[in-house]
Amino acid sequence: MFKAKDLLGIKELTTEEIYHILDTASNFKDVLKRDIKKVPPLRGRTVVNLFFEPSTRTRISFELAAKRLSADVINFSITTSSVVKGETLKDTALTIKALGADFVVIRHSSAGVPHFLSRLLDISVINAGDGANEHPTQALLDLFTVLSYKRKIKGLTIAIIGDITHSRVARSNIYAFTKLGAKVRLICPPTLLPSEVNNLEIEVFNNLEEGLKKADVVMALRLQLERQSKGFFPTLEEYFNLYGLTSERLKLAKDDAIVMHPGPMNRGVEIESDVADGPQSVILEQVTNGLAVRMAVLYLLAGVKK
Ligand code: CP
Question: Which of 56, 226, 288 gets mutated to test ligand 1 (max ligand atoms within 8 A of its CB)?
């Protein structure tokens, strides 16, 4: 069923593969409710977390997922590694492979780095976020979370608000939700809309109130100020006034709409605290579900013949 040795992006996955990962994650979610949460499938395997960009949720949940599956885990620290002495990514990756790693989980500021490692190495490579390209396990955990509330994806209206241009989460979620039959709306200033959306089956709104109407799922995205080299909007206050998700604006979505955010949040910029901590927020459940989803990904890739 699961044929590729790597998970590089949602773009490369079939609908069947996506559902297979989600079904497997559902089984692992049951395992995580037991008193003893550790299972043996990855005993004797080694997972290396190779993060060239900061992370809280993704790095910790990959580490915990690997440990719950009984794998050995190495967290590679860039600042204390030979990368600071000028060692290349290629030599770093080959060194990790020579030490006997079975999986490399890679986050990097440059799009395409996981694909480069996939060609270089005969072990499994998992994309934990590459530049503004993709963040596939985030989209999988988002699908999982929506399914747990709505019991379906097909026909839902998913409103994604904010910095689409710089967001790998937006890209992976656009691929994921459209593949599974949802209607995706992007709500953002024209300056934060990438040109490639013309080729995608989505609706675009520059007006937040219009875009929120009758949405089933409202997903706020972080303003990625670290990736913005020029002024895409006048001030953060101006951005919040036009695109900040407030309780008042949320009333325009369906009464049972859920609120999502991949984290980390800029409270008071893209989302108001009342909404982030409110009754419709499933933001912390997204984090919890990420563990089961990453266990599923590691487990399924371990079963692929290399
Ligand atoms: N959602 C996400 O990727 O968060 P981190 O940057 O904390 O891993």
Answer: 56
